[in-house]
Amino acid sequence: MGKPTNPADATPKDKVIYLTFDDGPAKPWTPQVLDLLARYHARATFFVVGHSAKAYPDVIQAIVNGGHALGNHTYDHVWLSRVGHDKFITQVKQTQDVLGTLASSCMRPPYGATNANTRKYAAELGLSVVMWNIDPFDWRRPAAPRIASYIIARAYPGATVLMHDGGGDRSHTVAALDTILRELSQRGYRFETEPPCRRAV
Fold it and tell me: Is residue 164 among the annotated active site residues?
């Protein structure tokens, strides 16, 4: 997704931001993220780790019930750029199998690590690779105002934002999300799921 030539000229219908969350589901963080998204009538995409999805089927169902999309983030959060074909397929397919009919047709490699084969191997499973444009490095747990200000300052129509709802203490991300949703909503943005991750209904 590229930036518009002049984002300031975008019409309100174009002011869409794609919020994405990696490494979950995890309690209590994912349910707190879902509560905030519901409060602002926002939709997001959750790139889930298979073993966590298996552990929290109730949270996976809550994500779908909230109108959000599920993406594949491998089963064990492995570096896909460092594995061969068979392990790549196994790691991704295991997560698709856990998600079952709730699975979408998109994936995100952990760490954003790709190589020349990543998209080809993903395509063998019928999946599209979805990356991001804005990364506040929230996994390092900077203060919530820093996460929020980083994203708000760099927001533009069509941007994909990377955040995390799993993999550790995500209280700072949850606190930042409230500010992000409030400020960007006031600026006329709306929040949708990634188009390649939308399930046919």
Answer: yes
Place of tokens 């690779």: 129
Residue 79 is given by DSSP the state -
Contact predicate 120/78, CB 8 Å: no
Domains of the chain, each with CATH number or no CATH: 19-197 (3.20.20.370)
Q: Tell me if residue 178 is catalytic.
A: no
The tens digit of pLDDT for each residue in 74-126 reads 999 999 999 999 999 999 999 999 999 999 999 999 999 999 999 999 999 99
Q: How far apart are alpha carbons 192 and 182 in whole angstroms?
A: 15
Q: Is 70 exposed, middle or buried (0-12, 13-18, 19+ CB in 10 A)?
A: buried
Q: Kindly report the number of other CB atoms within 10 A of residue 191's CB atom.
A: 19
Q: Which two tokens stand for residue 108?
A: 């995100």
Q: What is the C-alpha end-to-end distance of the chain, expressed in Å?
A: 25
Catalytic residue among 73, 77, 164, 172: 164
Segment 28-53, tens digit of pLDDT:
999 999 999 999 999 999 999 999 99
Which tokens in the block code for residue 172? 């700072």
